């Protein structure tokens, strides 16, 4: 199935996957999936002479993140929520669940991490520059998050990466700008 076909299929089948325990809005998820399809179609045509933009509300973005975590059956990442502010500032909460794993004694089996930082964009790549990181109420060094990522990647047989790494933005996206409660994607 092509990516476009699979996105259309997901939009049609979303009501079938709805469960009482979900913590996201299917309406918001559908809006994001339609936006992804729109960006893919418009950038694939090559007819654009200037940048277009799509604005996504914070609640829509959080619904999409929750949908992806559930749909991809994430092993350790159980929740990720973000709050968006002016000038690409971002705060968020991450719930990591390592219960049942043979973990080092200094790690908790279940951890709620709170972060604050800034999104940087350069040459169609993006990264999060952490300013603050807390484990529950205790301030911790961002290197601890890198250790948790490396530990989870090793267990899952994934490539180890760092929170400081640059990532390619989704196809067609050229820039991201945040405002209070909104993200603007330029394509």
Structure description:
- The protein has 187 residues and is of the alpha+beta class.
- The chain has one domain.
- Helices cover 34% and strands 32% of the residues.
- It has 4 helices and 9 strands, in the order H-H-E-H-E-E-E-E-E-H-E-E-E.
- The strands form 2 sheets. Strands 2, 3, 4, 5, 6 and 7 form a 6-stranded antiparallel beta sheet that branches. Strands 1-9-8 form a 3-stranded antiparallel beta sheet.
- A hairpin with a 2-residue loop joins strand 4 and strand 5.
- Helix 1 runs antiparallel to helix 2 and helix 2 (26-45) crosses helix 3 (58-71).
- It is globular, with a radius of gyration of 18 Å.
- Residues 1-21 have low confidence and may be disordered.
In a nutshell, what does this entry contain?
By secondary structure, this protein is α+β, with helices and mostly antiparallel strands. The chain contains 4 helices and 9 strands; from the N terminus they run ααβαβββββαβββ. Strands 2, 3, 4, 5, 6 and 7 form a 6-stranded antiparallel beta sheet that branches. A 3-stranded antiparallel beta sheet has the order 1-9-8.
